[in-house]
Design goal:
GIY-YIG endonuclease, about 100 residues
């Protein structure tokens, strides 16, 4: 599954520590930069503490408002819904970071 990561979009993304591991939902305008920050531990916090560094889901949005609302919605979902969302497009939980670089 090849993704086309275009600049100028806002992204909702999900990181995982491993397949079926700890999940982190975030939003950003610059997905490659944000993934670099997560992977290198540039900022302390949840993703650093729990080694949540695999990009397993990314969804583009045309506006910041749409992306932020989607992120908030996903964060309130039950875990099984988040897993289903990941597995819909990425059943093998492949690290999509490779598609960014």
């Amino acid at each position: 599954m090849a993704r086309h990561f275009r600049m100028g979009q806002h992204w909702v993304y999900i990181l995982a520590s491993r397949r079926n591991g700890t999940l982190y939902v975030g939003v950003t305008r610059d997905l490659p930069k944000r993934m670099h920050e997560h992977r290198t531990g540039l900022f302390e916090g949840f993703s650093e503490r729990y080694a949540v560094k695999m990009l397993v889901f990314a969804e583009p949005h045309d506006t910041a408002l749409a992306a932020i609302q989607r992120e908030k919605n996903i964060k309130h979902w039950p875990r099984r819904w988040k897993v289903a969302l990941i597995e819909r497009d990425n059943p093998d939980w492949r690290d999509l970071y490779q598609d960014l670089v």
